[in-house]
Amino acid sequence: MKKIGRVFKYLILAIMSFISIFPFVWMILGMTNKAVDITAGKIQIGDQLTINFQNLLNSDLNFTRALGNSAVIAVITTVLALLFSSMAGYGFEIYRSKNKDRIFNILLLSMMVPFAALMIPLYRMFSKLNGTPFGINSIAVVILPSICTAFLIFFFRQNIKSFPKDLVEAARIDGLTELQIFFRIYMPTAKNTYAAAAIITFMSSWNNYLWPLVALQSPDKRTVPLVLSAMGASYTPDYGMMMSGIVIATLPVAVIFFILQKQFVQGMLGSVK
Question: Mean pLDDT over all residues of the chain?
Fold first, then answer.
């Protein structure tokens, strides 16, 4: 009976794994085929890989520039979000204040507001800054709303709960300033937490579609999701070219995840070393 149960368990896992990985396999095979073959649902290795990549790179949508825009936005957003959100989470947990928990609860309530409800106020606010580096149709307008989110602050605060507070007191006795304690003691011990937060933030910024669609109005400022959406909006979309673009767009997040997957799991479990 144990062997039958084990076989049944592995069979279920194999089926679920196949269902999960099939879209990626079909995507990789699709970038080697013509659009008509993809539309017909053929699953085969074609000979159109080079042509699809050439069409993608030579497209009027300027996919390479969109890759650069997405990379700049994602990297800057990730670095600033990790810095400011971790400092906020650290402050909420380490420092004592009478109204600290009330403010934190209000911050958590903001997570219940859908971003679609915030777009109009954000657009009106940034439109008043037109003519500056922070106006509409600038890289900064996409970065700023994402550098300090309620989720990341909550995530860092929960992980800081396992941080030994005796280290803070010992560092204060040794004469370190609060910023020195944060940068020289807390940050090196929370590498796993930062790795997990980096993956989440980078993936969210890289795949962000709705706000860049509203805020970035010129073609030279488009990000990868906007270009991929524009490819599918044509009257006769070239699905082979689209699949090639999707594969390229998937690689950065996949590479970062596989490099940091061990730290990601440990960070999500709240480990601090």
Answer: 86
- Compute the half-sphere exposure of residue 147: CA atoms within 13 Å on the CB side of its CA: 15
Q: Which residue has the tokens 């990868």?
A: 224
Gyration radius (Cα) of the chain, Å: 23
The predicted pLDDT at position 107 comes to 86
Q: Is the pLDDT of residue 271 over 70?
A: no
2 class by beta-carbon count within 10 Å (0-12 exposed, 13-18 middle, 19+ buried): exposed
Say how far apart CA 222 and CA 201 lie, in whole Å: 19
Q: Residue 49 class from Cβ within 10 Å (0-12 exposed, 13-18 middle, 19+ buried)?
A: middle
pTM of the model: 0.87
* CA gap 93, 151 in Å, rounded: 15
Structure-block tokens of residue 270:
């709240």
Query: Pick from 190, 179, 180: which is nearest to 156 by CA?
Result: 190
Three-state secondary structure of 82-103: HHHHHHHHHHHHHCCCCCHHHH
Alpha helices in the chain (DSSP H): 2-30, 35-39, 49-57, 63-94, 100-109, 119-127, 139-143, 150-160, 165-173, 178-181, 187-189, 191-206, 210-215, 224-232, 239-268
Token pair for 260: 């940091």
Q: What is the three-class DSSP state of 239?
A: helix
Residue pair 146/83 in contact (Cβ under 8 Å)? The answer is: no
Residues 83-122 pLDDT 10s: 999 999 998 888 877 788 888 888 888 888 888 888 889 9
